[in-house]
Amino acid sequence: EKFPEHWLNLMEQHQITLWNTAPPVMSMFLEYALHTPGVIERFRKLKLRCVMLSGDFISLTIPKHLHAMLPNCEVISMGGATEASIWSCWHRISRERHYQGSIPYGRALANQSLHVLSREDLRPVPILVEGEIMIGGVGLAAGYHNDVVKTDKAFVWSEHLRQQVYRTGDLGRIHPNGEVEILGRADFQLKINGYRIEIGDVEAALRAAEGVDEACVVPVGNGARKRLIGFLKCKDEVSAATIASSALASCKKRLPAYSQPSKIHLLDTGIDGLDAAEGEAARLETGREGSWPLSANGKVDRKMLKQFHADHEDGGADGAGLGGGGGFG
């Protein structure tokens, strides 16, 4: 079930000590705990000793709230791929460390290896230079069953490493301390009017805006009509007008004009909408206030986000965006 009340009842009943889900599921649970009368006291009494999060972007607010309410609970970021035994790297999220923008992908687990290589010749790239994250080690699969073409494309031999590695399709870079930072998906790169755009960069610019908790960006349209649509999950008690101004300023500061979202939608968080003079912010009803729509595996359902935009594009599309005249751009 996707209902936090049910999860809380089960965790109390069975004295659960270990949590393991995609980050949006924990985000939904925290929203329920923080905004439902009487629940936060129950949450603080949970026996959780370890929260493991993997498979999607981890908002900085998730470990912040967990550390505040459950001071004895470890929060760990896990990463990897099914083709390399599910998990290949990890990072213990520190209470004291001030994270800039995102949680590190981390370091390789025992008997596995994590590399950032050039996509062309599979050569290790210098520190802080973007490349593709690739995985090696004893956890590597032999390939895809009865699919030689797909296997040969994903499982490749690196002459520079002298070993076989799996191409994750994730872009990243290595920091001087040896930690790998994930920058986004290679297949999240796209071209709009001839310009290459990294969706992860656009999402990072939106997250940096005042009043924004989490952000998700999806491409819509084809050819010359292709554009980016942003979705924001907002912090408490922040007006839509403030979010509009902040998000616009953040995008203009960090992004070239061609990569800025053409329209922004807000999750349904109960925040007051813009007044008539400024336009009206469309709200995405997800079934749980302030939560992302989730796919079956607990990740953000980007197809549903695209459908929501399509449903609000006709008959008042200009009013659906934040800011006057139909959003940013």
Distance between the termini: 39 Å
What is the CA-atom radius of gyration, in angstroms?
21 Å
Kindly provide the name of the CATH class of the largest domain: Alpha Beta
Percent of residues in helices comes to 25-40%
Please give the domain count: 3
The largest sheet is: 5 strands, mixed
What's the CATH H-level superfamily name of the largest domain? ANL, C-terminal domain
Order of strands, main sheet, comes to 1-2-3-4-5
| Oligomeric assembly | single chain
Order of helices and strands, N to C? HEHHEHEEEEEHEEEEEHEEHEEHH
Mean pLDDT: 83
What does this structure look like?
The protein has 329 residues and is of the alpha/beta class. It has three domains: 4-79, Rossmann fold (3-Layer(aba) Sandwich); 107-185, Luciferase, domain 3 (Roll); 193-320, 2-Layer Sandwich (GMP Synthetase, Chain A, domain 3). It is 26% helix and 27% strand. It is built from nine helices and 16 strands. The chain has helices spanning 4-14, 23-35, 39-44, 61-69, 148-154, 199-207, 240-254, 302-313, 317-320, and strands at residues 18-21, 50-54, 74-79, 89-92, 107-108, 112-117, 131-137, 155-158, 163-174, 180-185, 189-192, 195-198, 212-220, 227-234, 263-267, 283-284. The chain has a five-stranded mixed beta sheet, covered by helices on one side. Strand 11 (189-192) and strand 12 form a beta hairpin. The radius of gyration is 21 Å and the shape is globular. It starts with a helix and ends in a 9-residue tail after the last helix. Residues 269-289 and 315-329 have low confidence and may be disordered.
